[in-house]
């Protein structure tokens, strides 16, 4: 816990300069929420992948897109991308564990507050109240907030730097295309096997097994967060920053 407190103190410097990013993030979440709200009933009756895609987007990388440019991952040298602020901090006498945790804290500030607001508003303005009890809806929220941890915390790792093909314009474009195709293929497989989408099944799990679904989601999120921190440390120790 002490490390997390020190990491928060370090993260405060960047967070204090990120208020514009927070405003844009909030506006983006509310904009997408308007689509999710009016489309829920149709989604539950007919199912369509667009709904799943936007839900997954909000609980993974949406917030990170809104970071101020000076804090985003940028090209440092030919074939090398990294977050400038982290490169600067790596030169200071700060333990790696603190630096790593500070990057995850910043990610959480760009995701959790807005996701919690979204889920609260979502409950009151959509027909989800007719489908899930309050207890089941809390389980539904925990499932998706946990997904934000084990999916979204992959992205702070990129702050540590990356070299190779994916740092070129062509490599980046191909990576995005391949990633989108992989998500589309995953959704397609789920629909083909079950006739329903990801959001639909999380509603079912939350309704039928709220306690079990919540516990499993939290456990997966906890171990994923630990694993991602360990992996980020390996990346930092592997990359040559000279």
Automatic annotation (TrEMBL):
It comes from the Bacteria. The chain crosses the membrane at residues 21-42, 48-66, 104-125, 137-158, 170-193, 199-225. Coiled coil: none annotated. It comes from Virgibacillus kapii. Keywords: Membrane, Transmembrane, Transmembrane helix. This is Permease.
């Amino acid at each position: 816990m002490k490390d997390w407190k020190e990491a928060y103190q370090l993260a405060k410097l960047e967070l204090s300069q990120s208020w514009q990013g927070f405003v844009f993030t909030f506006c983006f979440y509310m904009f997408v929420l308007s689509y999710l709200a009016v489309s829920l009933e149709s989604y539950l009756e007919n199912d369509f992948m667009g709904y799943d895609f936007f839900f997954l987007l909000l609980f993974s990388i949406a917030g990170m897109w809104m970071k101020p440019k000076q804090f985003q991952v940028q090209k440092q040298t030919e074939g090398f991308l990294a977050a400038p602020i982290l490169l600067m901090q790596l030169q200071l006498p700060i333990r790696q564990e603190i630096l790593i945790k500070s990057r995850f804290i910043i990610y959480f500030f760009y995701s959790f507050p807005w996701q919690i607001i979204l889920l609260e508003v979502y409950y009151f303005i959509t027909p989800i109240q007719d489908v899930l009890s309050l207890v089941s809806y809390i389980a539904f929220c925990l499932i998706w907030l946990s997904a934000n941890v084990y999916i979204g915390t992959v992205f702070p790792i990129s702050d540590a730097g990356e070299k190779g093909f994916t740092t070129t314009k062509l490599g980046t474009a191909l990576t995005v295309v391949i990633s989108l195709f992989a998500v589309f293929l995953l959704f397609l497989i789920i629909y083909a096997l079950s006739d329903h989408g990801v959001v639909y099944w999380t509603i079912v799990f939350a309704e039928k097994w709220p306690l079990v679904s919540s516990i499993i989601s939290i456990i997966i999120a906890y171990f994923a967060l630990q694993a991602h921190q360990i992996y980020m440390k390996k990346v930092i120790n592997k990359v040559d920053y000279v």
